[in-house]
Amino acid sequence: MTTKDSIQEQQAPPAVLTIAGSDSSGGAGIQADLKTFMAHGTYGLSVITAITAQNTQAVHSASRVSPNMVAQQMSAVMSDIDVRAAKTGMLADAEIIEAVATSWQNALEIRGTAIPLVVDPVMVSTSGTQLLDADALTTLREKLLPLATIVTPNLREAEALLNMAPYAIDSVNAMRQAALQISTQFNVEVTIVKGGHLQLADPGTVVDVVYERALDNFTQVSSARIDSVNTHGTGCTLSAAIAANLAKGLVIADAVRNGIRYVNEAIQTSYKVGCGAGPVNHAYALCTMPIVRPTLYNPHPFTQYLKDNSKGLWQQYTQHSFVGQAAAGTLSTSVFVHYLKQDYAYLKHYARATALAAFKSDSLGEVSVLVDAMQACVRESKLHVEMCAKWGVSRAEMEQEQESWSSVAYTRYIIDRGMAGDVLELLVAMYPCLLGYGEAARIAADDSKTLRQGNPFWPWISAYAGDDFQAAVAQGRQVIEDLVSRDILGPQRLKRLVTTFCETTTLEIKFWDSALEIN
């Protein structure tokens, strides 16, 4: 295989555009946006509206880029590259806002399809410098906000947009009303009023209010308040993270929730830069999550990471003596029948867990795969019934079999993970069963020592090594890899997923152990 072949296999990540000012200290503006885009696995593009001379303590000066140059940048980028989402930040003055709004509309007309636009109405810098005058605010309201998919004001910006007195928004309820008014007045699909400046009864909590106009729905997203001065550029970073998530195909609710989590964890992992308000750690996920993009030689990086970090459990599971004895034809019939009865009961719960995953998913594609998986459980259970029948065990007897403690522990653990976690955590809990059976059966089937002729257990091995089950493994694996590619796995979340994978792998091992122990 040549290098050229390898390059051709790579798929370009979704492109995201930032239209904002340059921050010479690197913590906010286009610098923060581009770092955030990269941390989310997207390709960053930029249109520069202004150049600032600033550091962590103050903005010393600012010089705008001409409106014509802003328009030319937007035309050049959007006429050539498939922009999947965009965000705006510092827009300097009314003329630049007008140029951005006009250029955006022209680009959409040429493209013929809608592109999500996140508007961060930057008005004041972290150090207190005014970045938008009264004329520009009027133009922002009239020209740009009606084009926005999402607008992300903080409390002071929300008050300015609504011509309210400073500090009028003084409660979560007032934040809800402001979000509703902004979406209604400016025809914005989603408004996020950020509550970082609001002091709550619980001083350790920050609440952001999300209003979705189409659903007339409010969501309050609570996060831990981090005692840190390193909050320079948090607004830029949040809007960039949301835009990146939208470009990757996340629905708005998930794009917002993941964006807020990303900013919170970036503050938690920040470090001191300069003598004032430092930046967040945009690259924390890149530094702590050694999961690369898929390549020719590692097409399923998250799956490989889980197996590599199972501390030997994966090899112990996929090369279990239960499968080895079945492959050699030496497994006790009574052991195998006991296993089939228990696995028959297990499959019912596995199907329930699959239904729960479908319920938790917001993707019709994922739901379709999960429905197929439920039907596969039914087909698998029929195999168990047919095999038991050969040893004189009826379906009625299988239905009446008491579930073993190893089965109870395993199935309830999976359901518990599904109830407590999101769809990814549930699917990771279910993953060892799907992936491990496929891999263990394939190892046995590929082994020249495996007995095929006259081996009563060969039909069981061949069913899991066969094309149908292997296709189901590939389909399930792709769903999980796709979910991970759209997520930002911080160190704690990644650790929890690995723990879940290891614990269910251990439960799989004990499931086969318990079958062998009846002898």
How does this model look, in words?
The protein is elongated. With 519 residues, it is of the alpha/beta class. Strands 3-2-1-4-5-6-7-8-9 form a 9-stranded mixed β-sheet, sandwiched between helices. The chain is built from 21 helices and 9 strands. The two termini are 51 Å apart. Helix content is 57%, strand content 11%.
List strands and helices in order, with pairings.
Elements: H1 3-9, E1 15-23, H2 29-39, E2 43-54, E3 59-64, H3 67-78, E4 83-88, H4 94-111, E5 117-119, H5 134-144, E6 150-151, H6 155-161, H7 172-186, E7 190-193, E8 205-212, E9 217-224, H8 234-247, H9 252-268, H10 284-288, H11 301-308, H12 313-318, H13 321-328, H14 333-360, H15 364-390, H16 395-400, H17 405-420, H18 423-446, H19 458-465, H20 467-485, H21 491-517
Parallel strand pairs: 1-2, 1-4, 4-5, 5-6, 6-7
Antiparallel strand pairs: 2-3, 7-8, 8-9
Identify the notable features of this structure and list them briefly.
519 residues, alpha/beta, nine-stranded mixed beta sheet, 21 helices, 57% helix, disordered N terminus
| Rg measurement, Å | 28 Å
The share of residues in extended strands comes to 5-15%
Count the E strands.
9
Major beta sheet, specifics?
9 strands, mixed
The residue ranges in which pLDDT falls below 50 over 5 or more consecutive positions are 1-8
